[in-house]
Amino acid sequence: MREFLLGLRLLFGSGRGNRIRFFLMAAGGSLGVCCLALVLTIPQILDAHDGRAAARQPRSSSAQPAGSTLVLQRTDPYGSKAFTRVFVAKGTKDADKIPPGLNRLPEPGEVFVSPRVHDLLRDRPAVKGLLPGHEEGLISTAGLAHPDELFAYVGTTPGKIADGGRALKGWGYSYAPFPAVEPSTLTYLRFALGSLVLLPLGIFLSVCARLSAASRNRRLASLRLLGLSTKGTQRVNAAETVVAALLGSILGLGEYWVLNQVMTRTGLPSLRWYPEDGAPSATTIAVCLIGCPVLAWFVGRASARDAAANPLAVRRTAVSKRPAKWGALLLVTGLGIVIGYCATGFTDHPANSIGPNVLLIPAGILLTGLGLVLTLPLISYVLARRLARTTQSLTLNLAMRRNEVEPGSTMRVVTGLVLLVFAASLAQGVLIQLDQVSRPSAPVQDYSISRSNLTAEQQRRLAEVPGVRAHALTMDSWTDLNKPGSEVQPQATALVATCAQLAKMVRRAEGCVDGKVLMLNNPNAGVDPGIRPGVGFTYHLREGAQRRTLHLTLSSDSVLYAPYDPSVAGSATILVPPSELPAGARPESGQYVLTSDSDPDQVRQVLDGIAAVAPIAEIELVGVNIEGLEQIAVLETLLAVGMIMGLVIGTAAFVVSATDRAVERRPQVTAITLIGARARTMRAAQCVQVVLPLSIGLALALLTGKLAESSYLITGGSAIYWDFAGLPVLAFAALGVAALSALGTLPLVGRRIDPELIRRD
Prior knowledge:
The chain is of the alpha+beta class. The chain has 19 helices and 19 strands.
């Protein structure tokens, strides 16, 4: 305790420079703690979403006793969002069972809506067709998963929902039917955020705890020479780092509180939450207030070990000790695990993420990243020593001699950037995995809309929605069993489209001729034997208020085609040209089909366009549910947040380290300048001193990152094992990082010479 108090007295009584350094350490640590709190709170935000969604789910039974309250839930896409409506027919029983967010059940003709639906009803009155009745009130926070949710309770009578309604038994389940992020996908997300944020964050906090390491080591060496014990000297240094980390943790939590308040009002794309959802939990506060000072304690003791053990070696003339080799052992161990899993990708039975692999894969990747960081000083030392002995260049000799003496000083500057490139490779693998899990396998997406809900003008406008590549109609054949002598005919679904429209809806179509009724022949699917040439099928059409009948007889001509899976065209057996339909006539019962690319952004654009034209139309996304699209959007948002935080942390680590190094190097730079070295030579030496080890580190980060990415993709069951397409992007990013570091070294040498900087020497 005595040493701890001594450290605090030295901190606040050793001049303005040390106090400024202390507050810089605290400010830098606060930024890291703010990012850490955000990463730890993201799962809590998602759990809060799912918890409220589960609490409002109706528990019901198919039996409908007399007087029971009936419920019927419908979830339909409105644009790119899910619109959930719960129809409630209040009975004499269970009327006191009220869902969260309401103070009573709606009466017939009453509608309770979320704030987002309230705004939607004001901006687009056509939405009232989805909500029969008058708006009675708003649903409170307890009944909504997030502030932007489209949700409504509609009061009705038992007779209107008796066919599909179920008797209400209560509200609330232990799980959400459609979680914000699937549990299996959440595992990938946590791994990605850990790689993108936590690895660079650990380095950044370590850098902040070791600001002005050289000057502090000289001060600690003086204390050691005055008689302070080795452990006491380490405790003196740890006192400063612990207090700075504790102050930084408090400031960081305050920064996160402000950030949470701002983000709950502005929101992120596809992700909104309430302020209480993002409030830091007790676990998050404990990790920040206890974990960060504990990390600072160990960093402070480790950084003071050399000065306490051999204080005379702190002199500038002392020969520094060779960097330890045990970091290379971690790198070799991690690469061994990663390469082993990569090797299984060349076999017929690649490894999977079952059993011990669940732990080995993250362990191998983390060991590789940690070993890469700890091995860089050793690589820098060995390279600098060899080049300094062989080079004839003064610039290169100055740079390499400095790296040989202080290999850790330069690596503190570049480590954050190296880890950023390593984490970017892993993030690319996670994006590939999520892309294959979440996106439709077909390159096109079909939208099926009930024809009875559309007018001819709406059909025309829907075909012109941006992103729509083809449109068609489907209609089903009909048999009049009441007609004497009639017998059941095979069901034949007709696709009303031109050959050009058909070609845009399927993979391949051969033998199509416009103006003729043709059979659709898919060689990869079975055909009903009743659908053959010479057989006739009847379809009902509607022309205004009149009903018409269309009779089609199949000829021997057919179209050989290969539909996408899933698609509407895959279920059709007859191709009918639009000219066969009488002018102004439309199928009485059928679907209006639109086709677009399956890219998630394109799908959301088309859905928003459909909602603008026909807001109350019921849309079926063939092969995809709207909840899946919302999950994709949430995942993309969270990964983007992780990448931005990783970039901020990596850049902050570089700026802090480069600034600290510039301040520490001023006496040496001034001394060399005074003996005749030109400023141009010093700038070149400073640039080479940083860029050369950084380039080696970036090359290793690219190599190890791609290996780690491949092992992750192989064990995750991805269809892509070797992502060479992303290599040029990462290579250009590495070049940009090297250029940034080179520019950052130029201001370290100025024209003004201050002899006072070397007066003490």
